[in-house]
UniProtKB/TrEMBL annotation, chains A, C:
It comes from the Bacteria. This is Thiamine biosynthesis protein MoeB. CDD domains: ThiF_MoeB_HesA_family. Residues 5-243 form the THIF-type NAD/FAD binding fold domain. It comes from Pallidibacillus pasinlerensis. Pfam families: ThiF. InterPro entries: ThiF/MoeB/HesA, ThiF_NAD_FAD-bd, Ubiquitin-activating_enz. PANTHER family: ADENYLYLTRANSFERASE AND SULFURTRANSFERASE MOCS3, UBIQUITIN-ACTIVATING ENZYME E1.
From TrEMBL, chains B, D:
Belongs to the MoaD family. InterPro entries: Beta-grasp_dom_sf, MOCS2A, Mopterin_synth/thiamin_S_b, ThiS/MoaD-like. The gene is moaD. CDD domains: Ubl_MoaD. It holds the Pfam family ThiS. The keyword Nucleotide-binding applies. The lineage of its organism: Bacteria, Bacillati, Bacillota, Bacilli, Bacillales. This is Molybdopterin synthase sulfur carrier subunit. It comes from Pallidibacillus pasinlerensis. Keywords: Nucleotide-binding.
Length: 338, 77, 338, 77
């Protein structure tokens, strides 16, 4: 009874056996913002074996309203999120192996992480669809389940993707969404984050204790402020010709030409980001007008946001003026475009 | 009567969170056209659509009594 | 933009005005275990004016699996929960006024807290129905909304009670449940806790920013492992003759004879607890057999649990042998009986 | 067919999480009696009952096609 996991082992579908399994499992968590913080904390409190966390960002004051692992002191020290996270997580549970990487999650950086060790589950806690489609391809190529999660305002969604069984993200969304609403453009409340992580963490526990029967097969989406809740049956979305989970997969987002690329423009204090797609700047303009001064012409949109001037071209190029740092530029880019 | 639930940023774009439309039968793509014609600029094209909590395609039929949810992908995390 | 609440103010139903309102509000949180931790953290991160927390317990190793505010060090120091909570909450947000009370929540102890200051909302994070019915009476007598929450295993429920509008707990449950399943007898997983707090905190934000229109009017209940979710319309449960919210309220749980009382039995190293009700010891026996050695006869049930021998009489008396401390005895009592 | 959903500790007591009963019409209290008679010791008396997500009383009617949820109060926190 004095065991720290006793209340979890009393829960029948986990039990002693489940707890032993949990202790041997390795989870890869991509992103350590709002969804990442709570997912990480849940898994570490639950006693998994190893948690690998990847995030390129550092802790800022505006994070504290919803990102559970961080305190004011982490902001003052401008600690990278994964470092602040690791400090707190080890204080919570010193017996879990935490492997923290301050880095951008892209195929170049993720590949060694995936190929050099066995990973039982990937949890999506990113803030953009570029990375979600990358995770989706990696999941299917390496046969690792992943749990999608996203939130904005008082809304959120989650879906559990098992390679070879469920539809994948590509099946559900057809094309890369041109632009998803972001927490930085329309806001977010903490309960929406927690609702998504409640679903993600419950699904994670089911996968890690190997109770596949109990997995949710529906996509869940909700709006906490307006009291909406939908669980959507998605079996029919699965496509035989899907480039990721279909019969002849090509994993499009692992291919060089489809990856979002960034480069420092020498001597200009500017980073250029190139996406594979057109950007619908008129849709974007409506949203961005709320957070900064927007100027537009038929070819481009420019916005002053934080201390950067960002210029977004319809053809898919984005210039972030005011920095030579690719990670800062990517952060601004995903805050604006999502 | 077809009930339409709007999720996330669609609520702001439409200015309401749900809509009732008096139609006996239509398709998902026709419904999108009707909404686009009657409301200023909704970014419906990239939404997921569910009819009575089942994933729907553009050619699927919507009938009186159905609840149709338009769910735009949100990217926050 | 550099404001710590910027993402919350961008959320339209809160906005600048809502944030100002939040900063003036005072919430009373009863209990600082699993539901209490997360509720407290959410409210403090959101920037309410003042949070009063009441809990009689100290941090133990078995709490760490789900109680978000606490770390291993708090266990080693055996800190009272509200003290450990306050330390963490002030590190999270130094500008919120935290008023922490290490005490049992009963009418004698709560009365001064309620009567000496204005309270905008009470949040239920208790682990027993005695205290919930007490909160229900206090809420109606003093016209303060409260938000019920409870969880066990992978299930939970929440309901928002507005005096004069919604049915109250007494309307919904008719009689005091003889025994609710407890986390200490059937276990609990952290995602179930977070799902309840997601609902509670979202409702709290609506009440505190005075967006009453947005309040959920249904009772929500779910089972995360089995993928159940129900929102139950309860308008018809409201009763005109309800002793708490009816036309002639008598607030039964504020009356001395109905309160659960405890007394130290001198020289016997025993505490006696007297409830107002009979206890169905046969129903209880099935559940308690899982966590300790149970003996039974037609009049009583005895169980060895933790380092105490507890004897439960059918007529509503309970003896906890092995302690002279009422708070320890009450804790054991609620862990067993709920 | 009446569908019965069991919440929390009832799942353990019944050994299943849902039940389908072939009945055209009954009342909540009759339904409780049927369940008590057919399953060993369920503590149904103190449960909340909802028919199709609406709070129900003992005398309410349950019809074929309805979903009835038995929700025992849980006290954990």
């Amino acid at each position: 009874m004095k065991d720290r996991y006793s209340r979890q082992k009393m829960f029948k579908p986990i039990g002693e056996d489940g707890q032993v399994k949990l202790g041997k499992k390795h989870v890869l968590l991509i992103g350590c913002g709002a969804l990442g913080s709570t997912n990480a904390e849940n898994l570490v409190r639950a006693g998994i074996g190893k948690l690998t966390i990847i995030d390129r960002d550092y802790v800022e004051l505006t994070n504290l309203q919803r990102q559970n692992l961080y305190v004011e002191q982490d902001c003052h020290e401008q600690l990278p999120k994964v470092i602040a996270a690791k400090n707190r997580l080890q204080a919570i549970n010193s017996s879990v192996w935490i492997d923290a990487h301050v880095m951008d999650a892209n195929y170049d950086t993720l590949r060694p992480v995936i190929e050099q060790q066995s990973i039982d589950l990937i949890i999506d806690a990113t803030d953009n669809f570029d990375t979600r489609f990358l995770i989706n391809d990696i999941s299917h190529k390496h046969n690792i389940p992943w749990i999608m999660g996203s939130c904005v305002g008082s809304t959120g969604m989650s879906f559990t993707i098992l390679p070879g069984e469920t539809p994948c993200l590509q099946c559900l969304l057809d094309a890369m969404p041109v632009s998803g609403a972001t927490c930085d453009s329309v806001g977010i409340i903490a309960p929406a984050v927690q609702m998504v992580t409640a679903f993600q963490s419950a699904e994670a526990l089911k996968i890690l204790v190997e109770d596949y029967e109990a997995l949710r097969t529906t996509l869940v989406t909700f709006d906490l402020w307006n009291n909406y809740f939908q669980t959507i049956r998605v079996e029919r979305a699965k496509k035989e010709q899907c480039p990721t989970c279909g019969k002849q997969p090509i994993y499009p987002h692992l291919q060089y030409e489809n990856q979002t690329k960034s480069e420092v423009l020498c001597g200009r204090n500017t980073v250029q980001i190139r996406t594979g797609n057109e950007i619908p700047i008129d849709i974007l303009a409506t949203r961005l007008r709320k957070i900064g001064q927007v100027k537009m012409n038929p070819y481009l949109l420019s916005i002053d946001y934080e201390s950067y001037r960002t210029v977004i071209f319809r053809d898919g190029r984005v210039l972030i003026h005011g920095t030579n740092c690719k990670d800062i530029a990517k952060k601004i880019y995903y805050q604006l475009i999502g | 009567m077809i009930k339409i639930l709007l999720f996330a940023q669609l609520q702001e774009e439409f200015g309401v969170k749900d809509i009732e439309i008096n139609l006996m039968e239509t398709t998902v793509s026709q419904l999108k056209e009707i909404l686009k014609a009657n409301f200023k600029f909704p970014s419906l094209d990239h939404c997921m659509v569910a009819i009575n909590e089942e994933y729907a395609m553009d050619f699927d039929t919507v009938q009186s009594g159905d609840t149709v949810a338009f769910i735009p992908p949100v990217s926050g995390g």
